[in-house]
Fold this protein.
Amino acid sequence: MSIDFGDDFFFGTATSSFQIEGRSPTIPQGESIWDSFCALPGRVSDRSNGLIACNHVERYAEDVALMKKLNMGVYRFSVAWPKVIPNGRGVVSPAGLDFYDRLVDELLAADIVPFPTLYHWDLPQALDDDGGWMMRETAEAFADYTTAVVERLGDRISTWMTFNEPYVSAALGYVTGEHAPGHRSLDAGLAVAHHLLVAHGMGMERIRAAAPNAEAGIVLNFTPAKPATKAPADVAAADIRNAWENEWYIGPIMGKGYPERAVEALGWNRVIDVRDGDMELIAAPIDVLGVNYYSRSVVSAVGQTQPLSHQRTEMGWEVHPESMRALLVWIHENYAPPKIVITENGAAMPDTQVAGGRINDTDRIDYLRRHLHAVHAAKEAGVPMAGYLAWSLMDNFEWAHGYTKKFGLVEIEERTLNRKPKASALWFAEVARTGVVPDA
């Protein structure tokens, strides 16, 4: 049956700077860790990079007009630190801030609410040369960067998010090496995880100082882990996975500290990384929690598995909307953030069916519909759900997968970079216009 989200709920889309912007000759920009990572052999599957991406830096007005046509009420984007402070600290680039100034004004003129994230993985390479997030000094540089951005844009921004998915930055960037900067050290990853949270706390302080009337929070990703069987070893493995992936960040942010069972299992010596006052800084009250959800994981004592009977996306991720509903209820019951926004949810699909020149991505529509039902069910259960932002507005650079995985509601033609809404974009536009998710 159809469901109605009512008037107290917003819809929109999300992107990030490195994935869509590209570079402009008129904006001096420093290298990021992702620029460096893309240049390393074998790190990006199609050997691509973000130098052009979707050329949003030049075509932002066209993209905003498209969002308005698609009835998007909110647009989540990220600010590129290397555009604003090319060397990571020190001199601020007026041209970099001017770009975001123009973008925000364009959005507001189109009656679209700008919803910026300050950090979405594109650390200035100059800071990484000095140790990057392994060094506490990077958190201090982030605080100064935050002040520069918020002082410039804060008169027009109602909600700020400090970080996107710090778990991914720490785990994939420093433990497994799948993402930039490509390190492989658990000790480094644990230090990075703490420094990212310290930076979040420092960023919250700077936002409160520069924009006291704005709301602020952080975006966390969650992948609920389910044991493959009821065997005690599988249950224990899933519990540790949940503690590391799903509790490690929200716990300290909401004042509950790090999950002790994961601290013990990972062998983290907190004395090295945690200073007096850190936990209080990290636990500064937030106004909104951004939740990114794509899938669950099924875990056994010998590693991760997946049930073969369920639908998968092109990323190999199981489609399991019930886990999203359960996750939102769990967050509400255990941590009680004042407000929750789905800041990313979407699916990479084959996009091979074409009708009338348009990608007829019925599988993506089905994914979005089922997950919107899960969000609505959580809302009806009392979870303070405020909005849903689909990932992503357009096909873009999907990190280590390059341009091979397509999450967009809008197709980007490879040669021309022309924007072509898929069937899912038109479907979601109607949902955004009415607030109603129709029957299948």
